[in-house]
Amino acid sequence: MVQAIRSARGYLSKTAQLTQWLRRSPDSDSAAPLTAFMAPALDAALAPQREQQQTYPPEPHPIQRYRAIWLSDIHLGTPGCQANYLLDFLKHNESDQLYLVGDIIDGWQLRRGWYWPQSHNDVVQKLLRKARKGTEVIYVPGNHDEAARQFDGMAFGDITVREEAVHVTASGRRLWVVHGDLFDGVVQHARWLAYLGDSLYTVILALNRHFNRLRARLGFPYWSLSQFLKHQVKNAVNYIGAFESAMVDEARRRGCDGVVCGHIHKAEIREVNGQLYCNDGDWVESLSALVETMEGELKIVYWTTLLDAPAPATRRRRRAAVAG
């Protein structure tokens, strides 16, 4: 008992001395031993806080602004659609005008079997949101969404449907905007062959998805195996050349300086027979868009690397529940 009392008295005595030191001025010589003793401990305690204060969130990627953007062959409703890449592109790129140049929704595939994940719905919502916020969105249907052609001239959710359109660039060039399937002899005169080719193409795209899933795990960007194989076939190359010539000849007949189209999934800008030929590519193989800068320059933008990783499905559902 006596020992416990003595220990308590010693503890109280040291506490009183420590209190007196803390009340003294920091410049006092008697506070020096305390400062020297506590400095290392204080540094160690404050180090995590300093590191936290010096850690800043990554700066957001800047949004690029264009006069016009052309997108085609998105093929919503199919497993081959790269919706996450398109959403990332739409998030980081704005324009005064946005042209949807056909095959936005793949009606052929949806008739065979329903496939509509949340990311495809997100693309539609993003396009509608851009239209509501002032972007002029013009929808030019293609052969896979040809049912929309009957609504030529009508507007749905601030998106105007046109069977074809004419865009005037900043430099004054008139560009005929059309999907291009009407100049595809296979689609027009051998529809059964077009359906067969579409089925085989779907199989190739399935292989393409597995191939790129493996590339992503190894840290490589998206690369289209299906597009590479297609462009190695001589008949396919000849067909593309004939398609391009037919498109520019029709653009000239209509009094335009060039054409913007999709349909063949091959992004390109070049002169053909003295006319400007522009193909905006697709969001199944090339992941590309045609853009016009504020200065009137036309160029192809490839979006094969995500700037923002997509949120996990559970997190998206949680946010949706909160918003609802």
Automatic annotation (TrEMBL):
Entries under Gene3D superfamilies matching the protein: 3.60.21.10
Domain Calcineurin-like phosphoesterase stretches: 69-266
Superkingdom per UniProt: Bacteria
CDD domains xref list: MPP_YbbF-LpxH
A GO BP entry: lipid A biosynthetic process
GO molecular function annotations of the record: metal ion binding; UDP-2,3-diacylglucosamine hydrolase activity
Keywords: Cell inner membrane, Cell membrane, Manganese, Membrane, Metal-binding
Record GO cellular component, one term: membrane
Pfam families on file: Metallophos
Protein name as catalogued: UDP-2,3-diacylglucosamine diphosphatase
Species this protein is from: Cupriavidus necator (strain ATCC 17699 / DSM 428 / KCTC 22496 / NCIMB 10442 / H16 / Stanier 337) (Ralstonia eutropha)
